[in-house]
């Protein structure tokens, strides 16, 4: 998935805004980050539950891994955008959005 497609998918969710976040781009709902995009490294980081993080990482630890330090222990998970299918990335993105969005918004996506 390229950066523009990733951004388009992020912004397709209800009430999402795009803002800078240090050297990355963040995607937020209700002022909370659910995904970041590192354009230079072609990587995205998502806020997943511990169980979802484990499932995705078990799929391919060379392309999906917990973020470093305490962030990874809180479910933040990094994905290599160039090496994974769009379907897998959209699944992770949807779960991440639902983990952060208010219930009335996340219910629309049946997470």
* Tally of individual helices: 5
Q: What are the low-pLDDT stretches, counting only 5+ consecutive residues below 50?
A: none
Alpha-carbon distance between the two ends: 22 Å
What string gives the helices and strands in order? Answer: HEEEEHEHEHH
Largest sheet: 6 strands, antiparallel
* Class from secondary-structure proportions: alpha+beta
Average per-residue pLDDT, rounded, comes to 94
Radius of gyration: 13 Å
* Shape by Cα distribution: globular
Strand order of the largest sheet: 1-2-3-4-6-5
Quote the beta fraction. Answer: 25-35%
Tell me roughly what share of residues is in helical segments: 25-40%
The counted number of beta strands is 6
Describe the structure.
- The chain is α+β, with helices and mostly antiparallel strands and 111 residues long.
- 39% of the residues lie in helices and 29% in strands.
- It contains five helices and six strands, in the order αββββαβαβαα.
- The chain has a six-stranded antiparallel sheet.
- It is globular.
- The mean pLDDT is 94.
